[in-house]
Amino acid sequence: MKKIIPAYLRVIVLFFTIFGAIEYFIDSGDRAAFIKFPIVNVILVVVLVLLVAIEIVISAADTIVYQILPEEEKAKLAAEEKLPLKESAWFKGLMNKLTRTVPIENEASLLLNHDYDGIKELDNNLPPWWVYSFYACIVFAAIYLVRFEILGADNQEMELKKELAQAKIEVAEYMKNAPDLMDEKTVTQLTDPADLAIGKTTFETNCAACHKADGGGQIGPNLTDDRWILGGGVKNIFHTITNGGRDGKGMIAWKGTLKPKEIQKVASYILSLKGSNPKDAKEAEGDLWVEETPTPEAK
Ligand code: HEC
């Protein structure tokens, strides 16, 4: 057979095919198998060396066989080597197998013995590539029918729905454990004194200028009463701190400056100030917030 693909390309293609197969079949979670399991690297190196070795052996064997060929065979081989791919015996053989055409000179052997006003008919074979594709379709249809209509496997829509549901569960799980990921839906009020102390520090550094160190309020509203302009409860307060107050009021969004976990702590700290009645506190503003009322549209 004529060598269509050069050896180095064959090695590369085979190597990456094996590499791909390894990655596909070894379940290595979110990291590539060759990073997670160092042994995979060893296997890959061995595979590569083997592939190169096999190519060398084949090429050596070819050379030896060529040496012992009689002269006329050598000449034939050399001539074959020079032919373009489409002219090669291998390609012609393949085409013949796929089409089984009869050369035009032998057309008479196919002629059917009827004649419609001079129109004659040839009885050509169905081309094998067509016949085999047809059989493959029948096999496919049978498997499809059994799998989806009888055994009730998931169709694409169902698969997508299941994957989305699973992804939702995973995101929720991730949000629960991720140290710095949290939103107003998942935030909970902290009561641990250590957390509140951190919240207090954050408050004194960033917020006291407007809300006063005791939370009594100055430029910003009083945070120690039970009235809230933008909604009370940890979820609303988290939302306000994250996204800021109403436009032009002076309360900026802190989401770039503070991490969600820090916002959670400072929000919890603010909640712990409730009822502390600091001296010279600002008048209460906003609506009375009673926990367990349905969350009003914050802002
Ligand atoms: C530049 C001044 C300023 C700073 C600094 C500031 N705030 Fe405010 N804050 C305000 C103003 C003004 C409002 C009222 C916003 C409105 O009415 O929309 C407000 C509103 C709030 C509210 C909602 C109050 C309510 O009644 O609904 C919370 C909670 C709050 N701030 C927390 C904080 C926290 C926590 C920080 C620090 C990380 C902070 N603020 C820093 C000015 C400030």
Automatic annotation (TrEMBL):
Coiled coil, from the record: 150-184
Domain Cytochrome c span(s) in chain numbering: 194-274
A GO term for molecular function: iron ion binding
PANTHER family recorded: CBB3-TYPE CYTOCHROME C OXIDASE SUBUNIT FIXP
Transmembrane annotation, as ranges: 6-26, 38-61, 129-146
Record SUPFAM superfamilies: Cytochrome c
The entry's keywords: Coiled coil, Electron transport, Heme, Iron, Membrane, Metal-binding, Transmembrane, Transmembrane helix, Transport
Protein name per its UniProtKB record: Cytochrome C oxidase subunit III
Top-level taxonomy: Bacteria, Pseudomonadati, Bacteroidota, Flavobacteriia, Flavobacteriales
Signal peptide range in chain numbering: none
Region (Disordered): 276-299
InterPro entries found in the cross-reference section: CcoP_N, CcoP_N_sf, Cyt_c-like_dom, Cyt_c-like_dom_sf, Cyt_C_IC, Cytochrome_c_Oxidase_Subunit
